[in-house]
Amino acid sequence: xxxxxxxxxxxxxxxxxxxxxxxxxxxxxxxxxxxxxxxxxxxxxxxxxxxxxxxxxxxxxxxxxxxxxxxxxxxxxxxxxxxxxxxxxxxxxxxxxxxxxxxxxxxxxxx
Length: 111
Description:
By secondary structure, this protein is of the alpha+beta class. The chain has a domain at 39-105. The protein is 31% helix and 14% strand. It has three helices and three strands; from the N terminus they run H-H-E-H-E-E. The protein has a three-stranded antiparallel sheet with strand order 2-1-3, covered by helices on one side. The radius of gyration is 17 Å and the shape is globular. The protein starts with 14 loop residues before the first helix and ends in a 6-residue tail after the last strand.
């Protein structure tokens, strides 16, 4: 049955469905990690270009089904001297680390 048939009313897949469709081997996992690292570097560069007087740090967001290692970082705010490198090297999720960073503004109305 196609994933997006009339019987399947959802328009997207969750990560458990993706894992069941794809069997990530070590090469594919390494490629996912490489792409994640490149995305992290771009986002971090963009965040560091924001006026530092407006920011109090960065927040780590993790997927709902993240591994126990990534769960430790979920919704934690880090100052700019202690930003963890993504993807996490200790991640054990089959799809790899899917954590992302977001800027945390000092005042939520300054965006």
